[in-house]
Amino acid sequence: MDLDRAWELHPQVSVRPEPFGALLYHFGTRKLSFLKDPRLLEVLRGLSDAPTARAACLAAGVPEGEVRRFEIALESLEQSKMLVERPS
Amino acid sequence: MTLLAPPPASGAVPAPRLVDLFEYGLDAPICLTWELTYACNLSCVHCLSSSGRRDPRELTTEECKAVIDELERMQVFYVNIGGGEPTVRPDFWELVEYATQHHVGVKFSTNGVKITPEIASMLAKNSYVDVQISLDGATADVNDAIRGPKSYDTAMNAMQNLKDAGMKNFKLSVVCTRTNIPQLDEFKAIADRYGAQLRLTRLRPSGRGADVWDELHPTAEQQRELYDWLIANGDGVLTGDSFFHLSAFGKALPGLNLCGAGRVVCLIDPVGDVYACPFAIHDEFLAGNIRMPGGFQEVWQKSELFTRLREPQSGGACTSCQFFDTCKGGCMAAKFFTGLPLDGPDPECVQGYGEQLLQQRGDDLVIAKPSQDHSHRTDKWSKSGKVPVSITPRPAGLGPIMTTGPKSMPVSACEESPLAGFSPQAD
User: Fold this and answer.
1) Contacts of A75 in chain B (CB under 8 A)
2) Of A70, A74, B57, B278, which has the fewest CB atoms closer than 10 Å, so is most exposed?
3) Contact A76/B3, CB-based, under 8 Å?
4) Nearest CA among B192, B26, B34 for reference residue B107
5) Average pLDDT value for chain B
6) Is the bond preceding B84 in cis, omega lying within 30 degrees of 0?
7) Rounded-to-integer distance, Cα B287 and Cα B268, Å
8) Strands B78-83, B31-37: parallel, antiparallel or unpaired by DSSP?
9) DSSP A7
10) What is the pLDDT of residues B92-151, one digit of tens each?
11) Which residue from B113, B148, B112 is spatially nearest to B133, judged by alpha carbons?
């Protein structure tokens, strides 16, 4: 996954905020994912308006030094088809 | 299911396990079971909802749609619809379409009776619908002994129709019993043959299941066999998290391994009653009714019962067991309907503690019965020697018993039509 490209949630993915973070459900793959960090939810929410995934991380208040950790989480969301690249 | 969090920074306090967070409940259920009707064409011996006859107080189409609207607002991603046999409701397909149009996915359980080629083709086109065919024997003799005559053929026919329609990855759902545990590989082969995914669940002493549990629940050796089989097959076989009590054999099984009752799951029954889980249809686990002001959301978020279930539970006698952290004392409903204390071991505790307790139960113990019984009455009648009768006109061939005897059904006293009983052909 290229952090410097534009990404968005798959149109069949629904996000439900919860006290611990959020639940993600993909209606196509019928897979459920749990986000245990509320900041990751903020990143996802900002994704479709941000020019790149990196910009979405920074806008959500993720310090530069922690971006790599969020990249790993975003990568696994991409692998489970929750994230798709946005045509720019 | 995947669990996602950025990996912890070195030296940071480890994040709490998800299962620990879930114990305090969620704003809305993850997995909601909705039994749409108690009516059923079958009379399976282990039916956990004691289904058979329709309840006249069943939710109307409009009430069901209002529930769906509420689930959409609460972002319940999907519902597991069951019964009874949900497809015998005349408005069933209408409700499925309404739910999926309102972003509530539907997975429904059926014995296959209504899955014609036409219906199968309609279902295959809707990616928000998943179908679960129930089968409790990999061969007709084993299946039909539990689910009734011809039910094996009905299920196989339904699966063939789904496969022919191009439906992918629908579920073949099996309740594991003493008679079918030797058939696990055969079930897997059947699922593979139809492009389906196998789902195994636990036999519970709920509903009519209580009457057959002693004879049908897996033996201790079979539990081990099942556990080994599940470990070997891993994520490829679904279990609905139903075997977490088996985790005490050693390695935890895939899934949350948590009793989700009132925390992440619940049941809405055909008359709108909300229970903590599908296996606990009893007043003790009744949280409220969706017909009350505030509807389902109020029951889920504020009922006294669910609030109590979300508090840390006492492990009681199990706390000192080294496997308590993975097995959590097992299934609440299984304990309740076998007369065991809720804060003690599961009746099928793999360490054998449940078996000891079952043997210590006194003869005077009164075991709780389900609050509802909608079973077909046929069996009871045949046992009592009574037969169902209906009043019909006397057949013409038997000759008159009255010179001006009735030629048709008597008109009901409540009939409102001014033409009631009038027939142009009548003399």
Assistant:
1) none
2) B57
3) no
4) B34
5) 88
6) yes
7) 10
8) parallel
9) E
10) 999 999 999 999 999 999 999 999 999 999 999 998 999 999 999 999 999 999 999 999
11) B112
Closest CA to B236 of B194, B186, B203, B191: B191
Is B105 in Cβ contact with A30 (below 8 Å)? yes
Q: Which two tokens stand for residue A46?
A: 């900002």
The number of beta carbons lying within 10 Å of the beta carbon of residue B239 is 20
DSSP A9-46: E-TTEEEEEETTEEEEEETTTTEEEEE--HHHHHHHHH
Say how far apart CA B134 and CA B126 lie, in whole Å: 21
Contact B58, A60 (CB under 8 A): no
Report d(CA B388, CA B359) in Å as an integer: 40
Cβ contact, residue pair B130, A28, below 8 Å: no
- Per-residue pLDDT of B243-290, as tens digits, reads 989 988 988 887 777 788 998 899 999 999 999 999 999 999 999 999
Beta bridge partners of B131: B108
Do A16 and B27 count as a contact with CB atoms less than 8 A apart?
Answer: yes
**Tokens standing for B196?**
């389906």
B215-230 tens-digit pLDDT: 999 999 999 999 999 9
Token representation of residue B213: 């549990």
- Under 8 Å CB pairs connecting chains A and B tally to 79
Mean pLDDT of B284-302: 96
Stated pTM of the model: 0.84
Contact: B6, A23; criterion CB under 8 Å: no
Question: Cβ of B12 under 8 Å from any chain A Cβ?
Answer: no
Q: Report the C-alpha gap between B354 and B295 in whole angstroms.
A: 38
The identity of residue B111, as a single letter, is N
Contacts of residue B286, defined as CB under 8 A and 6 or more positions apart, other chains included, come to: B273, B274, B275, B305, B371
Considering only alpha carbons, which residue of chain B is nearest residue A65? B9
Q: What is the distance between the alpha carbons of residues B367 and B338, in angstroms, rounded to a whole number?
A: 6
Q: How confident is the model at residue B389 (pLDDT cuts 50, 70, 90)?
A: low
In angstroms, the separation between the Cα of residue B21 and the nearest Cα of chain A is 7
Alpha-carbon distances of B99 from B52, B53, B76, B87, B170, rounded to whole Å: 25, 25, 11, 15, 18
Mean pLDDT of B162-175: 97
Comparing CB atoms, the residue among B16, B30, B105 nearest residue A23 is B30
